[in-house]
Design goal:
This protein is mainly beta. It has helices spanning 2-21, 82-86, 218-224, 229-237, 329-332, 349-352, and strands at 29-39, 42-55, 58-68, 89-94, 101-106, 111-112, 119-122, 135-142, 145-151, 165-175, 178-187, 259-272, 276-287, 292-303, 307-316, 325-326, 334-338, 344-348, 360-371, 375-386, 389-400, 408-420, 431-441, 444-454, 469-480. A hairpin with a 5-residue loop joins strand 17 (334-338) and strand 18. The radius of gyration is 24 Å and the shape is globular.
């Protein structure tokens, strides 16, 4: 009965929402969704509504989703705590980026600070819908002063070991249009990047009962069944029971790993009118306890909304990465790596800095263009070299404008690979790739969203086999209103 009522609510909401707002001047939009998706390796049927409500300066988005398993049961983990109801708010917003005051709370698709040498396209939605984060980005500008702030997930503040990824940049025009800025970004606990579904402190990768906070190992299960220690010891001796105790495992509630980056920058607009802008800038950054990086010179060039170019010459010490908090950061923040003896140990992105053993220099170049709404692209490339080391990164997004191909409402492909020695390997732990395509069939959008990420689970330095490829598939049939 409960399911039927929820389904009727969704149908009614979709109809009422469309009728009530279809005549409004503000462009209110949304999608009613029926389809399939994968969460933590399990398949679910999805029923939901996502709506966007721009009401002048204020705007908000709703994300009401039901995930139904093979037994016809609603995924309880999405509704059993008060904080789950906050997840139904996709975002709250006041103003828009580049307004004198702007704030957005909820899903962050692409977040940048300043010249993006530290925070470069960070997203807290990269693991959606398996992981929904409630972040924030805001900016404030008054006369010659401005500031930017971002935060990855308010829910981390309510964990047993509270922490958060947070950053800010403040800037001031000291002489004419000459602007200087200072940036500080810190991750108070990288280990919060590990997925822990039952929040017992033991990450899902090492928790044999990831949905039960009372059980972690096989021995826990036997003790809960009141099996004697003598019997447990006998089973272990006969290799009929895993000998791992929870005390042998990594406990997130007892460990922390912090990273912090500080930076100074200066920029000056050498030309600007309604259509063309040219800026020059420089920036120096330091990852505390590790290395530094210097950008000089940096140039940005733009022609309206048609094309934006960016180029930098970069020089860095060992143990440094440009754009440390980038689009794939939540995937690299913390992860498990398998050792030769089969054991799993925790690694963090900060530890990866130790692999950069030489001073390096090179360039970065990026272009973003919209060709008459026919082809839309965002491409960037970095190439740094020093000693016998290389650090290369590539980001490429390519999409077609709407109505270019009949019946195709969305067509987009993307590929990211960060901080690798070369591009001989298509798949690495820092790689994300996929494509999105939607068909319009008589007012109904049928959409397919394929996303691939990768984990080196056996620790051999290579991605191979289906077990090391994480495939997330979304299939949606939606009525757009």
């Amino acid at each position: 009965m409960k399911k039927i009522l929820i389904y009727l609510f969704l149908i009614f909401f979709n109809f009422s929402f469309h009728k009530a707002f279809s005549q409004e001047k503000e462009k209110i939009s949304g999608t009613a969704v029926v389809g399939a998706t994968t969460i933590n390796g399990e398949n679910y049927q999805q029923i939901g509504i996502r709506g966007d409500f721009p009401l002048g300066k204020f705007g908000f988005g709703l994300d009401l989703q039901l995930y139904i398993d093979a037994d016809g049961e609603i995924r309880k983990e999405d509704w059993d705590e008060w904080i789950d109801y906050l997840d139904k708010i996709y975002y709250l917003r006041w103003g828009k980026k580049n307004d004198p005051f702007y704030i957005k709370i909820g899903g962050l698709d692409y977040t940048y600070l300043g010249y993006s040498n530290i925070v470069n396209g960070y997203s807290n939605m990269i693991e959606y819908p398996a992981e929904k984060r409630i972040g924030m980005e805001t900016s404030f500008e008054l006369n010659d002063f401005k500031t930017e702030i971002f935060l990855n997930d308010f829910k981390e503040l309510f964990k047993k070991n509270p922490s958060v990824l947070i950053g800010t940049r403040v800037a001031y025009k000291i002489l004419g249009d000459l602007e200087i800025g200072a940036t500080v970004v810190t991750d108070l606990n990288e280990y919060n990047g590990l997925n822990d579904e039952d929040e017992d402190g033991f990450a899902d990768d090492i928790d044999m009962f990831p949905n039960d906070k009372n059980l972690v190992t096989e021995i826990d299960e036997y003790r809960m069944k009141e099996v004697s220690n003598y019997t447990i010891s006998e089973l272990i001796e006969k290799d009929l029971l895993d000998s791992t105790e929870r005390e042998d495992l990594f406990d997130m509630n007892k460990e922390t790993s912090q990273s912090m980056v500080v930076s100074l920058d200066a920029g000056y607009p050498i030309f600007k009118n309604d259509k063309i802008s040219i800026d020059i800038y420089t920036q120096i950054s330091h990852i505390l306890g590790h290395g530094w990086g210097l950008t000089f010179p940096g140039v940005r060039f733009g022609i309206g909304d048609f094309i934006k170019l960016r180029a930098e010459y970069r020089n860095q010490s060992k143990e440094f990465l440009y754009g440390y908090y980038d689009f794939t950061y939540e995937l690299e923040r913390a992860y498990f790596e398998r050792q030769e003896d089969g054991s799993l140990i925790v690694k963090t992105k900060k530890e990866s800095l130790e692999k950069i053993k030489n001073k390096m220099q090179g360039y970065f170049a990026g272009v973003n263009f919209n060709l008459l709404n026919f082809v839309i692209a965002d491409i960037s490339y970095q190439d740094l070299r020093g000693g016998n080391e290389n650090i290369r990164s590539i980001k490429a997004e390519l999409g077609l404008g709407k109505k270019i191909i009949p019946k195709i409402s969305t067509a987009k492909a993307y590929y990211y690979q960060n901080n690798v020695k070369n591009f001989q390997e298509l798949k690495t732990p820092s790689t994300m790739m996929g494509y999105i395509i939607s068909y319009n069939l008589g007012g109904v959008d049928l959409g397919f969203d394929y996303r691939y990420t990768f984990q080196d689970k056996n620790g051999d330095g290579k991605i191979s086999g289906k077990k090391e490829t994480i495939k997330t598939v979304g299939i949606r049939a939606g009525v757009t209103f």
